[in-house]
Amino acid sequence: MKTYLLPSIKITIILLVILSGLYPLAIAAIGKLTPGGGDGVTVTLNGKVVGYANIGQKFTKDKYFWGRPSAADYKADAGAGSNKGPSNADYLKDVKAKIDTFLKHNPGVTTAQIPSELVTYSGSGLDPDISPDGARIQVARVAKVRNLPAGKVLALVNQHVEQPLWGLFGPAKVNVLQLNVALDQLK
Amino acid sequence: MNTEYAGIIFMYLATVALAIPLGKYIAKVFNGEKTWLDFMAPLERLIFRFSGIDTKKEMNWKQHLFALLSVNVLWLFYAFFCLLFQAHLPLNPDGNPNQTPDLAFNTALSFVTNTNLQDYSGESGATYYTQLFVFMFLHFVSAATGVAAMMVVFKAMKDKVTDKLGNFWDYLVKAITRLFLPLSFVVAVILAFNGTPTSYKGKDTVIGLQGDTIHVSRGPAAGMIAIKQTGTNGGGWFGANSAHPLENPNYVTNMAENMSIMIISISLVFALGYYLNKKKLSWVIFGVMTVGFLIMVFPSVTAEVNGSPYLHQLGISQTTGAMEGKEVRFGPAASAYWGINTTVTSNGSVNAMHDSMMPVSGMAQMFDMMVNCFYGGVGVGFLNFYIFIIIAVFISGLMVGRTPEFMGRKIEAREMKIASLIALLHPFIILVGTALAAYMLVHFPNANWATKPSAWLNNPGFHGFTEMLYQFTSSAANNGSGYAGLTANNIFWNVSTGMVIFVGRFFPIIGPLAIAGLLANKKFIPESAGTLKSDSTTFGIMIFSVIIIVAALSFFPALALGPIAEHVSIK
After folding, report:
1. Beta carbons within 10 angstroms of residue B312's beta carbon
2. In sequence order, which ranges of B200-330 are alpha helices (DSSP H)?
3. Facing B71 at nearest CB: one of A8, A39, A122
4. Quick one: which of A114, A112, A108, A111 has its CA closest to A135?
5. Rounded CA separation B337/B10 (Å)
6. Would B171 disulfide with which of A160, B41, B151, B497, CB 3.0-4.6 Å?
7. Does residue A74 contact residue A52 with C-beta atoms inside 8 Å?
């Protein structure tokens, strides 16, 4: 046993120092050079931090664009999905209710126009994004509440559409928090 | 939608393109040839000198096993006690509590075995100490354990007659210093520059735009996320794993992480060819694995991109696909693709919630784990494949009426018995575990546990059964992904899956090592006209058939009760 146990203990100690001690410290040192300095990238409005760029927030007021439903109520220290299966009857009722709520707040929009991400829970419960269409169908509501011309709000949405990576890979999207911050800055 | 397809095609091709030279490099490392990472040599010498290890002392297969098991048992105890008392250890800025004994048992086993089933959430169930000094440490060493075991089998195939199969510690350390550490470093830096936190600061509190108070969990996550992918571990920093926007902030990181999941598993197949100087054999194995992989990718991606038939009935637009449990920045194609990647490789990290995917995807993901060798986990994927090679050789031998041989050695009753036992063990622990869970659920729905069995499942009907089947499949395959709706943090699930994880890890390492060791001691028979060519397409088809028959026969009834039944009941 001594042939194996003693080297096992010693190699564990030194590997702990290298892998768990030094390696993350080196990454943290490099992290200082990144945007956000390794603490996470924040978003500010009028000099005040109002959130993290990558972490979605709960938007329920009509004057803001809404993001995705969250099974975690957008708690950024307990992100989680709904884990509802596609055939679950209670879940389908829940989605139906979300569709109805959305239609009530957005007169003029039809069910067929609602993209699925606006009425389904995200995987993390903290999804910061919606699809460009998901933002565009909310323009009329937001413009009306804020007494802004719809064209101006639509232009702002289009300005915030992030195209696929290098124009080639992945979906296009809109970051809801950043769009809403820009909206608040709009005069 | 086209850009989404382009994304996954690019990821696959780029992974293979990088895996081939990486395989060549790995073969060089373990052949003791010069490589450009030789500047790591002083660090290795320091590790060996400190540990009092002489790497020139070669070991036979039994000595390898003793070394492997002793160090793994040590890690198990270390992890268990750290988790049990984590609240009192340093680096706990968020003030998180100790893990309960059954949870610590499950978590320790899970991480030592490269499984990373997580019945806790990283934000509240672990501390920075346990994340870095237990989980991330085990990410490295459990992956390296797999590679070291695989190297023993490689070495046994390489030399003519020998019982000297290299030094376990040498394999273990080199797998870390020459492979996992450098690669993880690169990936961690990519993550850091795209917004994954790296600092040791605890939770931040901000007031959001609507005036809500938001607590944001953070921490030195980038380094751990990198090795969780490259080492096919899968245990994430945050509970939502790679669906979490800090763990996987954008499409660039998604590509980097997704490619990291696959790259080493694929490169090890090519490493075999370069190491034995049998490149054609590598291509045959790679071909078999790739066919199996693609058969799973197509239906899953199609199902998710087309959207949920139930939501179609509600009349909404599903141009963005089936979005329940998915993140907008990845989209349905990259989420389904990841789901297959993570289950073929025994990784188990997720960028979307599998529980909410279509039944076709669930079936594909479980089938991947039931086979567990279409690429497979680092090192162990090849060991599983090796078992199927032995069985295929034996059956081919019987079919043509010759003594079966592989790599110049006769396969006889003893090797065949070991191979059959290992091949049957996997379905046995999955099906018995699931049956036991279903029995408890039906007959003891109100058993007095932290979570009553009647409250285990998050979904009714066939989907609920799938949640249980998935949990045991994932445990036995050392995968670690879950149908996360299952309430698994209670004594029944923690203990039962903990035991399945243990059996599912170490026996499939012991078996192939024993076979390879026994074969290496046998007389070498030079190839003749009657030898079954192991590097031919015919043999590839033979292996593929054996895999499909064994897996399909074992698992079809269970799959029929879960995802198949759910799929055919879609109206």
Report:
1. 14
2. 222-230, 251-276, 279-306, 309-314
3. A8
4. A114
5. 12
6. B151
7. no
Per-domain boundaries in chain A: 1-40, 41-185
* Separation of alpha carbons B3 and A166, rounded Å: 10
**Number of residues that make up chain B:** 571
> How many CB pairs below 8 Å do chains A and B form together?
384
For B538, the domain range is 383-568
The per-residue pLDDT string of chain B (571 residues; one tens digit each, 9 = 90 and over) reads: 689 999 999 999 999 999 999 999 999 999 999 998 889 999 999 999 999 999 999 999 999 999 999 999 999 999 999 999 999 999 998 989 999 999 999 999 999 999 998 888 889 999 999 999 999 999 999 999 999 999 999 998 887 767 889 999 999 999 999 999 999 999 999 999 999 999 999 999 999 999 999 999 999 999 999 999 999 999 999 999 999 999 999 999 999 999 999 999 999 999 999 999 999 999 999 999 999 999 999 999 999 999 999 999 998 988 889 999 999 999 999 999 999 999 999 999 999 999 999 999 999 999 999 999 999 989 899 999 999 999 999 998 888 888 888 888 889 999 999 999 999 999 999 999 999 999 999 999 998 888 899 989 999 999 999 999 999 999 999 999 999 889 988 899 999 999 999 999 999 999 999 999 999 888 888 877 777 788 889 999 999 999 999 988 899 999 999 999 999 998 7
Q: Specify which residues B541 forms β-bridges with.
A: none
Distance (Å) of CA A90 to CA A84, A94, A123, B313, B470:
9, 6, 19, 15, 22
Start-to-end Cα distance in chain A: 76
Residue of A nearest to B11 (CA): A169
How far is it, in rounded angstroms, from Cα B447 to Cα B490?
Answer: 12
Please state, in angstroms and rounded to a whole number, the distance separating the CA atoms of residues A34 and B261: 24
CB–CB of B51 and A18 under 8 A?
A: no
Among A32, A77, A126, pick the best mutation site for testing chain B contact (most B Cβ within 10 A).
A77
Distance of CA A119 to the CA centre of its chain: 14
| Domain endpoint, select from B268, B287, B317 | B268
Instruction: Indicate whether B80 and B229 sit together in one domain.
Output: yes
List Cα–Cα distances, B418 to A42, B158, B202, B540, in angstroms. 57, 21, 50, 22
Domains in chain B: how many in total? Answer: 2
Residue with tokens 């936190």: B197
Decide if B114 is inside a domain. yes
Whether the CB-CB separation of B360 and B295 falls below 8 Å is answered with no
Partners of residue A48 on adjacent β-strands: A45
Query: Considering the entire predicted model, what is its pTM?
Result: 0.94
Q: Which residue type occupies B337?
A: Y
ipTM entry? 0.94
Which of B67, B316, B329 lies at the smallest CB-CB distance from A173? B329
% helix / strand / coil in chain B, to the nearest 5?
65, 0, 30
Same domain, B387 and B264: no
Subunit contact B328:A16, Cβ cutoff 8 A: no
